[in-house]
Write a structure and sequence with these properties.
Helices cover 44% and strands 26% of the residues. By secondary structure, the chain is α/β, with parallel strands linked by helices. The strands form 2 sheets. Strands 3, 4, 5, 6, 7, 8, 9, 10, 11 and 12 form a 10-stranded mixed β-sheet that branches. A two-stranded antiparallel sheet has the order 1-2. The two termini are 43 Å apart.
């Protein structure tokens, strides 16, 4: 068990780039994490992590060893889950990466349904953009991720839903009189751009039609866009999912041509899922139907 604790400390420090953050995640002290990794390095006779003021990073030796160590930790988790299953799945942790729209409108229903059958499972929720969530799943930081499809080729993905992109307009705006708003008309208006990380799906939509939008404001916050539109500061395009139960006085219209994003659920591998995660994934499609 002591060896496993060292392995977990090594994996977390490598993933998070910090002894301090690894200690917080594992509920150890910073000195404890440093000591365990030092013991592992001495036992193996290699330097696993390079230390600096900026944090820690994998050495070349650490790069070669991190995946086997990660697999050992995953198999230990799976063993514990199997034991838990024999006792009625009384414990477990599910780590989920998600976009804010899915965290707001899908996850509460999924978790509520799952908790009825498995009330003692804990959850860790990380909000990010498309690329962050992909990387978290690839790195093992989360067990599963809700994201836009297509995703990274090394991930196993399941299609969940097609989410329409909608024109967002202030009340009384001339374009609000239209049933469907042409992209070329939106491009001529002061535009409020939702852009998360390196994602530029909205700009790609405009490029496919010709004119670039007159971007006056850029943010990663969906609700900031809605508030700006409500105050007449511009028009925008947002996914329909985030616009559910919208608290702002804005007008929503379909686009011409229509546009959408495909949403899916990603895991790194279906063959090594913790039991609690495997059971959780079965509840997802029914909860969002």
């Amino acid at each position: 068990m002591q060896s496993l604790q060292r392995y977990e400390a090594f994996v977390k420090a490598a993933e998070l780039g910090s002894f301090t953050r690894a200690a917080e995640t594992l509920s150890y002290t910073q000195s404890g994490v440093s000591r365990m990794i030092g013991e592992l390095e001495r036992a193996w006779g290699v330097r696993l992590l390079a230390r600096s003021r900026a944090g820690v990073r994998l050495t070349s030796e650490g790069e070669r060893l991190i995946e086997p160590v990660r697999r050992v930790c995953a198999e230990q988790r799976r063993l514990e889950d199997l034991v838990a299953d024999l006792n009625g799945l009384q414990a477990g942790l599910i780590r989920i990466g998600t976009l804010s729209s899915m965290a707001t409108h899908w996850l509460p229903g999924i978790v509520r349904a799952f908790q009825r059958d498995y009330p003692n499972i804990d959850y860790e929720l990380l909000l990010g953009d498309y690329l962050e969530i992909e990387q978290w799943v690839l790195d093992g930081r989360v067990d599963c991720g809700f994201l836009r499809l297509p995703a990274h080729a090394h991930l196993h993905t399941t299609f969940l839903a097609r989410d329409r992109m909608m024109a967002v307009l202030p009340e009384g705006h001339p374009l609000a009189a239209l049933e469907r708003v042409p992209l070329v008309r939106l491009a001529a208006e002061p535009f409020l751009l939702l852009q998360k990380g390196d994602n530029d799906e909205i700009l790609r939509m405009f490029r496919a039609q010709g004119p670039a939008p007159d971007v006056r404001f850029t943010t990663w916050d969906d609700y900031a866009i809605m508030s700006m539109a409500e105050n007449g500061l511009g028009v925008s395009i947002l996914p329909e999912l985030i616009l559910r139960r919208c608290p702002y006085r804005i007008v929503l219209r379909e686009l011409d041509p229509p546009a959408w994003r495909d949403i899916g659920l990603a895991v790194r591998s279906q063959d090594a899922l913790p039991l609690a995660v495997e059971r959780f994934l079965r509840y997802v499609p029914a909860a969002i139907a």
